[in-house]
Amino acid sequence: MNRKVDTGLLISRIAIGFPMLFYGIGKLIHGIGFIQQTLIDKGLPGFFGYGVYVGEVLAPILLLLGWRTRLAGAVFAINCVTAMLLVQSAAIFSLNENGGWQVELLMIYALVAVSLFFTGGGKYALSTANQWD
After folding, report:
1. pLDDT tens readout for residues 12-55
2. Contact predicate 90/79, CB 8 Å
3. Which residues contact 103 (CB under 8 A, 6 or more apart)?
4. What is the DSSP letter of 122?
5. pTM for the whole thing?
6. Which of the residues 14, 106, 129, 133 has the least number of beta carbons within 10 Å of its own beta carbon?
């Protein structure tokens, strides 16, 4: 890859990893009770809620570091789609007050994560040149 592509991959990793980490830190501080209750209300086990720590803390850190970027991208994308389906399912077919798609931010996060799953982290990453870079 050339340096411009590698720089673009680094910027993409930062663009989704950094802001999502704040969501995860918020859940570390305030807990995940509302997520567990949402899961229970949908007939799923509440302990699945602990997966949010993987998707919103571990995966963003891995993306920022560029370590196991493909795996982290897949986990990150699954986390975003799960959040969309569990918490914002009513908004999937809705527009916000400015005419934008109600769930556009989550979808952008998910799509960038999927793209990182396919590309890997690039040259400016801790792990490179393997299938899970």
Report:
1. 999 999 999 999 999 999 999 999 999 999 999 999 999 999 99
2. no
3. 84, 88, 91, 92
4. -
5. 0.91
6. 129
